[in-house]
Amino acid sequence: MLRCCASAPAGPVDNTRAARAGRRGALRALLLSLPAGIALRAGATAAQERPVTPAPFATTFLQPLAAHRAWSSAEWELLFAELRVLGMNRLILQWTELDAIAFHPAPLELIVSLAARHRFGVMVGLSHRSDYWQAIDARASDPAGFLRALRERSLAIARANAGWLRDQPAFVGWYLPEEVDDLNWRVPARRDRLQAHLAETSEVLKALTPGHRVAVSGFANRGTDPDGLAAMWSDLLAAAPGLDEVWFQDGVGVGKLDLAELDQMLRAVAGAVRRAGRELRVIVETFAQVAGAPLDADPFKAVPAPLARVLAQLTLAARWAAEPIAFSAPEYMTPWGGVAAGELGLDYLEWRAGRP
């Protein structure tokens, strides 16, 4: 499951307000002063010595939260500038409605306008409910009613915004925030509900904005049979021809899969997606979970991952799909996420600048 949180600084630091502001300002100034593609210092890093060169990020998620509703135009401008320095040119808004919190028409209109100015494309996520996982749990009742209500909200958002979005050069398409896992849809009757939901939603979106993409994401858990996973995605894509892209979460940041297990799952999903004539992209988790289920009973918490681990994920992703997706650069690779996030961004910039 895709999560976000503030990253924690590594090691003891001076956390006075003045010190935090100074570090953030210095990191931000450095990020914005570095043209992409210029080496930061001589000498190869360990990542550069890897036998296979990973593909860099061009796309990142952003999870809109309540605080984003109060952001100024200058703050959004700064975020786009930082993402551009990291080499990004596409932004995925994970949702435009989170329970009762709406992010449309504002700040969606501003984000799309600034995206065009910064030469970004935007995939617009629709409605998400925080009780999604409880509602679709395989042990719960029939999810048809929940999916119907979710679909109605998402399509209401799409209808309210399609008229102006389809004329925007930055608008690429729609993202369905309801992530497809490997456990809750094993029963055929439940899988039928999911397939019907995704088919109807994507069909309406295609009619509202012809020529624009529709994407859905999913993930797998440790121990899942790869052949069964491939069969599930084959069935889903056959039932929902309006889905153009499948974004598979690598699960490394939350510890759902290690790299060897991930390779098996990606092989399976890639085959299903290719046979269906769709596009596969891999979501690379740029964080490491340090608290929350299943680790403990505390709230979810994560910190930026080491660059070496992220590069290993990118290398594996490149075996099965083009153009990896970061989850997520704003929280874990820029100063918006704190000191450690800014440092990961600088490490990544150094690696990216030294690529052949």
Count of DSSP E strands?
Answer: 13
Spatial arrangement of strands, main beta sheet: 1-2-5-7-8-9-10-13
- pLDDT averaged residue by residue: 88
Largest sheet: 8 strands, parallel, barrel
- Could you give the distance between the termini? 34 Å
Structural class: alpha/beta
- In N-to-C order, the SSE pattern is HEHEEEHEEHHEHEHEHEEEHEHH
Low-pLDDT segments: 4-17, 33-50
Helix content: 40-55%
Spatial extent as radius of gyration: 20 Å
Work out the strand percent: 15-25%
Helix count equals 11
Basic shape: globular
Structure, explained:
The structure is a single chain. The chain has 356 residues and is an alpha/beta fold. It contains eleven helices and 13 strands. The chain has helices at residues 17-33, 73-85, 108-117, 132-136, 144-165, 188-208, 226-239, 259-275, 307-320, 329-332, 339-353; strands at residues 59-62, 90-93, 97-98, 101-102, 121-125, 127-128, 171-180, 213-218, 245-249, 279-285, 287-291, 301-304, 325-327. The strands form three sheets. Strands 1-2-5-7-8-9-10-13 form an eight-stranded parallel beta barrel, surrounded by four helices. It has a three-stranded mixed β-sheet with strand order 4-3-6. Strand 9 (245-249), helix 8 (259-275) and strand 10 (279-285) form a beta-alpha-beta unit. Helix 1 (17-33) runs parallel beside helix 11, helix 2 (73-85) packs across helix 3 (108-117) and helix 8 (259-275) packs parallel to helix 9. The longest helix has 22 residues, at 144-165. The radius of gyration is 20 Å and the shape is globular. It starts with 16 loop residues before the first helix and ends with a helix.
